[in-house]
Design brief:
The complex is a heterodimer of chains A (183) and B (319). With 183 residues, chain A is mainly alpha-helical. In chain A, 55% of the residues lie in helices and 3% in strands. Helix content of chain B is 11%, strand content 46%. The radius of gyration of chain B is 20 Å and the shape is globular. Classes of the chains: A mainly alpha (183), B mainly beta (319).
């Protein structure tokens, strides 16, 4: 029996296992610590053989995520059908495990897991907005060329700043509304 | 500020110059500021200074020359666009190396690219509280920290770090009401010399019309109520844009900061179409435009938006 399950685990990692059999296997994994350890070991071996990188996944990786989700606030919104906790949990655990396996397999394969290494632009977008920038509220100022030229001339005449600051910079991106005063 | 750390930090201060007044062991903030102003005027010094404005760092080579009552300041940019700015007896000229463009302007109301402060620090008493905060090492030199805290919400707080030997400013920061740095300058190295040569500015021809001050009584507007401490410094009427249309420019100041009020015909400025209807900011500078009687007024300065609005709301056309 164990040999057959181990074979299934190997096929699961190679993405060769039938979908229904895979779900049954994942359900067994949830209740069988030995099987879970074997899956973790196979995953590590499989990954080490196929790639230069090693991504160790703790045995309780999926459980931790499932527990975290369980601890989230429940919203008592109207539901058409009452959820069945048993199947829900199994489906959730299976999904998490599949994601974990795919993550391990696809760590160096952009085609399988293209989001594993976000581009710098994506990282920039994910950078949280600084608290001070949140003060920038209100309508975006209009910036027609005539207005910019006029304000630019005013800045030149105003003080030293035109010499000691960045020169020839289009100030429009720096312009921001700090407060609204129009009645 | 990592870029600042990347810049080589080494401060060499010679001890031979006797022009600066001997500082007391523990000066008061006001005394320290007075010595700073005298040292800034009298000493010959040069170094590398980094300006932080609009979130951008601008490193420049700074030189101050003083001899026989004449002062000259020179800034040379270290990054593109390469340019040299010289202040000499109230005239400021700027030369762009790449384009060979040159401009010159008369700015008698400013005295330094670094810090402008009233000759008598007592003039700040009405609106600022000066405090000696403590000591800190800047550019490997021990400094005194002078805090200049406004007594109202109409101006920004500042700190100045003065090296202990001659009280020259090594660092200065302007903070907004949230305590965020809006402008800063930091010397990364500074050397005091017994003498330094003046740069020849005779060849610099004014390419802009001389900015001659005229009486503010000639202005077509008045400001009925100025914020505490602000007074008129300078008034000019001259073309500012690519047209002959004159623009009235009234410069106000409270000793540390400047506010400009511009007036021009609204039709030329297309004020009714594109004027911003809110206080806007570019770095530490806030500005606000409003139309009064067919004229477009713009108030601009390194002060909080409340101050800008207060001044703008008190503009009245002369009868």
């Amino acid at each position: 029996m164990n040999k057959e399950l181990n074979q299934y685990l190997s096929q699961l990692l190679d993405d060769e296992l039938d979908h229904q059999v895979a779900l049954d296997l994942l359900q067994k994994i949830q209740t069988n610590p030995d099987l879970k350890n074997t899956l973790t070991r196979y995953t590590a071996i499989n990954h080490a053989l196929k790639t230069d990188d090693f991504l160790p996944l703790p045995a309780d990786f999926s459980e931790k995520i499932a527990r975290q989700i369980d601890q989230e606030v429940t919203y008592f919104l109207p539901q058409k059908k009452p959820a069945r906790p048993h199947y829900k949990r199994v489906a959730l655990a299976a999904s998490v495990a599949v994601v974990a396996v795919l993550a391990a397999r696809g760590i160096n394969n952009p085609q399988i897991f293209p989001m594993q290494s976000p581009a710098p632009q994506q990282l920039a977008k994910q950078t949280p907005v600084q608290p001070n920038e949140q003060l920038t509220v209100g309508t975006t100022p209009q910036d027609p060329a005539s207005l910019n030229a006029r304000i630019s001339d005013y800045l030149d005449a105003h003080n030293n700043g035109v010499y000691t600051g960045e020169v020839d910079v289009d100030f429009r991106p720096l312009t921001k509304v700090t407060s609204y005063n129009q009645k | 500020m990592n870029a600042l750390k990347g810049i080589f930090v080494g401060l060499l201060v010679s001890a031979g110059n006797t022009l600066a007044a001997a500082p007391p062991q523990t000066p008061t903030a006001k005394h320290a500021l007075a010595i700073m102003l005298k040292s800034m005027q009298d000493l010959n010094y040069q170094g590398t200074v980094v300006f932080l404005k609009n979130g951008k760092l601008e490193p420049m080579q700074y030189t101050h020359v003083s001899a026989q009552g004449r002062e000259q300041e020179r800034l040379i940019s270290l990054n593109a666009p390469l340019r040299e700015i010289i202040r000499d007896t109230g005239n400021v000229s700027c030369f762009f190396k790449t384009t060979q463009q040159r401009s010159a302007e008369h700015r008698p109301f400013e005295h330094s690219f670094l810090i402008d402060a009233p000759d008598n620090p007592d003039d700040l008493d009405a609106n600022y509280t000066l405090t000696l905060l403590g000591e800190e090492t800047i550019a490997l030199q021990p400094t005194y920290i002078i805090a200049i805290q406004p007594k109202d919400q109409l101006r920004y707080a500042r700190k100045i770090w003065l090296e202990k030997q001659h009280f020259l400013p090594l660092k200065a920061t302007v903070y907004d009401h949230a305590g965020k740095t809006v402008e800063q300058l930091v010397f990364t190295e500074l050397t005091i010399k017994s003498t330094l040569p003046f740069t020849d500015t005779q060849s610099v021809k004014n390419v802009t019309k001389p900015t001659d001050a005229v009486s503010s009584a000639e202005a077509s507007f008045t400001i009925q109520k100025l914020p505490s401490g602000f007074h008129e410094l300078f008034f000019t009427r001259r073309p500012l844009h690519n047209s002959a249309q004159p623009v009235d420019h009234l410069l106000l100041g409270d000793g540390l900061t400047l506010v400009s009020v511009y007036m021009e015909q609204a039709t030329n400025a297309q004020a009714s179409i594109d004027s911003p209807k809110a206080v806007q900011s570019i770095g530490a500078i806030n500005f606000f435009s409003r139309t009064v009687g067919g004229f477009e007024f713009t108030v601009m300065g390194e002060v909080p938006s409340e101050t800008i609005k207060l001044i703008a709301e008190n503009i009245k056309l002369r009868e």
